[in-house]
Design brief:
It contains 20 helices and 17 strands. It is of the alpha/beta class and 644 residues long. α13 links the parallel β11 and β12. α1 crosses α2, α13 packs across α19 and α14 packs across α16. The longest helix is centred in the N-terminal third of the chain and has 22 residues. It is globular, with a radius of gyration of 27 Å. The model has no long low-confidence stretch (mean pLDDT 93). Bound molecules: fructose -6-phosphate (F6R). The site of fructose -6-phosphate (F6R) has 14 residues, from loops.
Length: 644
């Protein structure tokens, strides 16, 4: 085992450390959450045995959900009782009614308290309803109450993309106490999805202070997914600074970061593991090291010298392979061979060094698109080429994407149908009534109210129309667009249901029907809560169940990256270049998704339009290839093969 591989359920070990806080990295969020839940359970039981209360500080957000789920499982299956548990939550939006959809009171009940035997009077959450002139008294009494129970035995934390802990935004001092805090723009933008729009996110929150958090006898911070990677690097390896409040945890005598591999990906031991330990120089590690060296030194691969390798902690690699010259050529050729303008394989060409097989010359290709626009945003250039090069291309739109349509957009369409039917005297009172009801609901919809099934249907139809329009634009027949409307997605909320047998079934049925030679899927392995991950899980499970079938023996699965980032350069196995004209054509294909333009429901912290993100990313990939010394292309889409 080398230093960057985890044994199942065990954190990764290392020799030298750049890390200023103990950090346990697990293969995934589930394994990590199980370890944390185990520690909490042991503490609860120990306190029980001592006849004492166990005082826990708890967090909300997406990160601790998996820990709470594991605690609930232990309560059900392993007799873990919460009767002696007293909890204090970190924070609450201000103002906030406790029964509101976004309140942390509701969150905690749904995620934990309603499922365990904690006594009703044993949990405390900052009160989002106290009048402004009473907040000062309230926050003092909150701290006093924690002290009255003897202080926190254990504090669970998440971390904001800006480094906040609790809602202690950058600028918070190490001696800050529980208080009312203005929320950062980035924090509000990250919460916009839960509230329906940025404007509806409260501007303030009551939060336990940094000093209040640091007083806990044990502090464990969780982080999952690559979006957290930069801030984890800053908090763990950077200096202690108020600009990254999580870095204050470096001063805690008993703190621990528990993170998954994706959140750890910027840490030195993951990014350049050869600097912290001996590594096994397999081909993947060699590619990673050589491309990293080339990009860091700003030198094309073929110009790297023995001295460059020796000066940058890679002398043992040289000792193993001999000369920089041989190493450079080998890696350069491997990268060269990933580039192809023939994503479906080049007919009648020698395919020894090509990413795809030449035969069959005409393939059936099945593109899975988690949302109705991921196909064109993430692999629009490849989609177009596959069609233009004579392959039979199908697209499976996995979810309806209905929650990402703005109310006003839906109202416009509902009004259109009602007006149209009236104008032409169309006799379908029932259908007209559905749209009339939807329009009436939308006109009077209150903040954070959930959409009715009719409105969700209208919103889903809008996105379906846009997806069909993209298919027409690319040139595939409309019957090759398959709308799966996977049930896990249909909650009307950001929070989705777990993957069910029915979800897997619809995916299996379509694969069996199309019998594809190629499957393209959004491979966002690093986003543990996102729709993309659930959609991928469904495909992977379907493929595993079908793999014994004959047609599957001739099926290759290619993963593209959807939402957040591109594959690392050393991982890419197929790179499909685009000319300036092809890139422009892709942009026009993305424009078909009008409901996702000009300020969308889920803007997040990135204010760019989707076509801009896609173009910048594809141009960025091409630029990386070029900086490594390969040919200069306008843009590139990248894929990794999943060998099932
Ligand atoms: C929640 C809290 C916040 C979150 C942080 C990360 O009570 O205080 O600090 O822990 O914003 O949120 P997620 O886990 O949703 O990424």
């Amino acid at each position: 085992m080398d230093s960057t591989t985890a044994r199942a359920g065990e954190p990764i070990q290392q020799a030298i450390t750049y890390e200023k806080i103990p950090t346990n990295i697990y293969a995934d969020a589930k394994a990590a959450s199980q370890a944390v839940a185990k520690e909490i359970a042991a503490l609860i039981r120990q306190k029980q045995a001592e006849g004492k209360p166990c005082v826990l500080g708890l967090a909300t957000g997406s990160s601790p959900k998996t820990v709470y789920a594991e605690l609930i499982r232990m309560h059900r299956e392993e007799d873990l009782s919460f009767r002696n548990v007293v909890t204090f939550n970190l924070d609450e939006y201000y103002p906030m009614e406790p029964d509101s959809l976004q309140s942390y009171v509701r969150f905690m009940k749904e995620q934990l308290f309603d499922h365990v035997d904690i006594p009703a009077g044993n949990y405390f959450i900052p009160d989002g309803t106290v009048p402004l002139n009473k907040v000062a008294d309230f926050v003092r009494s909150y701290e006093d109450k924690i002290e009255s129970y003897g202080g926190l035995d254990f504090q669970l934390l998440g971390i904001g993309g800006n480094g906040h802990i609790g809602f202690n935004e950058p600028g918070s001092l190490i001696n800050s106490h529980t208080r009312l805090m203005m929320l950062d723009h980035s924090t509000r933008a990250a919460a916009a999805g839960d509230f329906g729009s940025l404007a509806k996110v409260p501007k303030k929150a009551i939060t336990m202070g940094v000093a209040s958090i640091l007083k806990a006898r044990r502090v464990v911070l969780l982080a999952w997914g690559e979006r957290k990677a930069p801030v984890i690097k800053a908090a763990v390896e950077g200096v202690v600074t108020e600009l990254v409040p999580a870095s204050y945890l470096q001063t805690h005598p008993n703190g621990l970061f528990v993170i998954d591999e994706a959140a750890a990906s910027e840490l030195t031991r993951m990014k350049t593991p050869w600097l912290v330990d001996t590594v096994v120089w397999d081909n993947k590690m060699i590619k990673k090291a050589v491309t990293h060296l080339s990009l860091t030194l700003g030198k094309p691969i073929l110009k790297l010298t023995n001295k460059d390798y020796n000066d940058n902690g890679m002398s043992d690699l040289l000792a193993q392979v001999g000369q920089a010259y041989d190493l450079n050529i080998d890696v350069f050729n491997q990268l060269q061979h990933t580039i192809t303008g023939w994503p479906g394989g080049k007919p009648a060409a020698d395919d020894t060094n090509r990413p795809e097989r030449a035969l069959p010359a005409s393939k059936r290709c099945l593109i899975f698109s988690p949302h109705p626009d991921d196909d064109i945003i993430s692999m629009g250039g490849t989609f177009q080429r596959l069609h233009d090069q004579g392959h039979e291309v199908h697209v499976a739109y996995q979810t309806s994407g209905n929650i990402a349509v703005a109310d006003d957009e839906a109202l416009r369409f509902a009004d259109y149908v009602v007006d149209f039917n009236e104008r032409f005297g169309i006799e379908s009172p029932q259908a007209t009534q559905i749209f009339r009801d939807a329009a009436a609901f939308l006109r009077n919809k209150k903040d954070s109210e959930m959409d009715t099934p009719e409105v969700r249907h209208v919103k889903g139809l809008i996105r379906r129309g846009e997806a069909k329009s993209t298919c027409r634009f690319v040139g595939i027949p409309v019957e090759n667009a398959h709308f799966l409307d996977m049930p896990f997605y249909e909650t009307g909320k950001v929070e989705k249901k777990p993957l069910s047998e029915e979800d897997i079934r619809v995916v299996m049925d379509l694969i069996e029907k199309v019998k594809p030679h190629q499957i393209y899927a959004a491979g966002d392995l690093a986003d543990p809560h996102g729709t993309h991950k659930v959609c991928l899980d469904a495909i992977m499970e379907a493929v595993r169940r079908l793999k014994h079938k004959n047609f599957m023996k001739d099926c290759w699965v290619w993963l593209y990256r959807g939402a957040w980032a591109e594959w690392d350069i050393y991982e890419i196995e197929m790179a499909v270049p685009m000319s300036p004209d092809q890139l422009l054509r892709k942009r026009l294909g993305i424009f078909k998704h009008q409901s996702q333009k000009d300020g969308v429901v889920f803007q997040g912290t990135d204010s760019r339009e989707f076509w801009q993100r896609a173009e910048e990313r594809n141009q960025g990939t091409a630029e990386l290839y070029n900086r490594l010394g390969l040919a200069e292309y306008e843009a590139m889409e990248a894929f990794v093969r999943w060998k099932f």
